[in-house]
Amino acid sequence: QILYLKPPWTLANLLKCYKKHWMAVFGYVVPRSLLSTVEYLSEHLCTGKPIDDSTVRILLEESKKLLHAFSSRSDYNGVLPQAYAEVNKLHQTLTEVRGALGFQDLSEDIMVLSENAACEKMEAMTPSLQNSEEKKLHPSFHVAQENRHQEIWSVLEGVWNTINLYSIEIFQKLDPNAMTGTAKSSFEEAFLGLQKLLAAVNDIREGISR
Asked: What is the pTM of this model?
């Protein structure tokens, strides 16, 4: 009903819509960390940059990851499984060709893992990597890590701002001498908001523990 760009869409338009509505819409349907996948696809498919076979391999893997995430919501009248099958077919063909030519794919162990396993693997690998080994990794590894760090920082900053806001409102409600010149949300809304926030903080703590 409300769209950044109206259909019919090109691939570039579709990816722009993903990025524009990610926090408000798509981030509630699929894991929000997949925004880095959308940005990677947009950067390499819609900017006219030349891409090599290693980049094509990663693009196919990221596309499969995105399609798989949306499959948990719907099969979209059979379109999604068909698209996934075609992308998977291309991925297998490229893998066979690369194998026949003797290419070594350094990104395979990282990119084909599930989202959580990939994060855990990267976190486990990073401290032990020497400078010479880091240079061998695909640039997308470092891009994914940087995006992950920015996402974590954004979440923690949002948690802090929300705690600060609700705490001020609650103390103002409890203090009869507090004078406020603007309309505030109800005590119940603030309390319920903190309950939701508590669950989010617990999720973050578990993630850090992993």
From this structure: 0.48
